Amino acid sequence: MLSIVPALEWLEALAWTTAIRESAWGYPIIETAHVASIVAFAGLVIMMDLRLVGLAFTHAPLMQIQRGLFPWQMAALVPSTATGVLLCVADPLRYYGNVFFRVKLVLLALAGVNALVFHLMAYRTDGRWDEHPQVVAGAWRAGAVSLVLWSAIIVSGRLIAFSWFF
Amino acid sequence: MAFIEWCDGLAMSQAYRESLWLFTLTQTLHLVAITTFIGAILIVDLRLLGWGLVRQSPARTARSAQRILLWAGLAVLATGIPQFTANALSYSRSPVFEFKMCLLAAALVFTATLRRRVAAADEGRLPVWVPRTVGAVSLALWMSVAISGRFITYYG
């Protein structure tokens, strides 16, 4: 069976990934930047989700909150993804064998699909969001799913530090 | 020191030290609560800086965010306190933890006093540099609290 392990071994042996892995400061600095930008990103996603489920910021129409927050969510997503990828390539075999890392990747994919579906639906029905009960119900579902997924992503991200089962 | 020993001897502390599940659950819930808390801070700070929800007044956004701050803040405390009491002996000797608590105290005081009043002020009543400075200081303080918390793991 074709395995990606040889590719990961090659990645791990590269001079620059080895340098990050073995430096005293490199890893903690990247990891801290990862955590800080994820907190900003997920924090703003959670704010939008709380609006979608109707628990906060209900004084403003959905689409206004969406348009106000979306650029900032994206601004935080870029550094959190970049630092996340860097952490992975610096120690690929460790992450490959970690069950919580795999769970986190699956959850991230699900959150991405949920966000994309919501996004496309939101912008296609622009302006009608707060009047149509069906659209509002869709928004509620998207918000609730996102809240659950992002909480689980934060939890599984933290659990990567434990090496249970493997 | 008596307080530290009292914390260390609590039944809650002992249970926490002995149960991997309790430890994991508390710590992960702490992180989810922190993320929610920082989100509620960020949405108002961005607005004070003149970004984000620009079509709403800072006062409206701050009022709605305050409820989230309160609930998430309580959850952060409830999940943070057992982590401290269980390891009170080592935390009381940790310079990073001490640094985090000082920053946290500063951030809390700043948020409850100056930031609250500036966010509640009618738009245009204050010179534009006031909300911007308050937003920038708040953002720097709270991100520093979160980052120094992360550093406790590395440098005890």
What's the SSE blueprint?
The complex is a heterodimer of chains A (166) and B (156).
Chain A: H1 5-13, H2 15-22, H3 26-52, H4 62-90, H5 92-96, H6 99-124, H7 133-159
Chain B: H1 2-9, H2 11-18, H3 20-48, H4 58-86, H5 88-91, H6 95-120, H7 129-155
Oligomer: heterodimer
State Rg of chain B. Answer: 18 Å
Order of helices and strands of chain B: HHHHHHH
Give the low-pLDDT segments of chain B. none
For the terminal residues of chain A, how far apart are their CA atoms?
21 Å
**SS content category of chain B:** mainly alpha
Total number of β-strand segments of chain B? 0
Give the beta-strand count of chain A. Answer: 0
List low-confidence stretches of chain A: none
Folded structure, characterized:
The complex is a heterodimer of chains A (166) and B (156). Chain A has 166 residues and is mostly helical. Helices cover 79% and strands 0% of the residues of chain A. The mean pLDDT of chain A is 91. By secondary structure, chain B is an all-alpha fold. Helices cover 84% and strands 0% of the residues of chain B. Classes of the chains: A mainly alpha (166), B mainly alpha (156).
Summed up, what is this model?
Chain A has 166 residues and is mostly helical. Helices cover 79% and strands 0% of the residues of chain A.
Q: What tags apply to this protein structure?
A:
heterodimer; A: 166 residues; mainly alpha; elongated; B: 156 residues; 7 helices; 0% strand
